[in-house]
Specification:
It is built from 2 helices and 2 strands. It comes from Kosakonia oryziphila.
């Protein structure tokens, strides 16, 4: 029983570590604006809100 709990804990920690350290390339698929709201469709958005904000601030500016 102890081995199962220990193994499960190791697996969960590895998965969490992978999710937080993976540096995926975020790509913008499309952007839509309907007059009052804007929607940006992306591929592989970061997991945490702080990473999403950092990505948005660091992304290169593109002229329409």
């Amino acid at each position: 029983m102890r081995k199962l709990v220990f193994f499960s804990l190791i697996v969960v920690l590895c998965i969490i570590g992978y999710l937080f350290t993976e540096k995926s390339n975020v790509s913008v698929i499309g952007a839509h604006y309907d007059g009052s709201t804007a929607q940006v469709i992306v591929n592989k958005l970061p997991l945490t809100d702080s990473d999403k904000i950092n990505w948005w601030k660091k992304k290169p500016k593109q002229n329409p």
